[in-house]
Amino acid sequence: MSSFDIDPKTISTEEFRALLSRADTLEGLDDVDPAVFARLIGRARRDQLEAVMSSPARTVVLDQILRRFTEHYRAGEKRPPKVIHWKVTGRPDGGQDEFELVLHGDRCEVNTVAEHGADTTIILGGPEFLLLTSGNGRPTTMFMTGKLKVRGDLGLAAVLAKIFVVPTAA
């Protein structure tokens, strides 16, 4: 049994944060099936998600999610690129993590530094980012409650779930 098969509801917030903090040195998130990760995030309590995203584990988790954007992209015909900037707030130092996705149609490029002007900018907190990218968050609800903000092309933001294969809990 993998440590990622644990039910977060049965462990403390500190144990949950430690589980994801160790992910880069133990079995690693590289080997965790996206559906298992989605289930882990979906069953976690809000305080557990906040603890992870306000700790050094945030870097490990964000790096893995960014890497997987390219794997989960639904490639289509080559077309002019669309650029989505992401701003994930609530970093431990009070700042935010920023990155961009460049959607070329036939491929997705992830840049940890913005290199292009944005068609759309999505701003959300760390827990909301985890919920959204793991298929456990409702983007419309997040938007309507102000937990997710969109600047620029709202239509592009609205179709992200169709552009990416969003993992579902196993």
Automatic annotation (TrEMBL):
SUPFAM superfamilies per record: SCP-like (SSF55718)
Domain of life, per lineage: Bacteria
Domain SCP2: 82-164
Matching Pfam families: SCP2 (PF02036)
InterPro entries assigned to the protein according to its UniProt record, in alphabetical order: SCP2_sterol-bd_dom, SCP2_sterol-bd_dom_sf
Protein name per the record: SCP2 domain-containing protein
Organism: Cryptosporangium japonicum
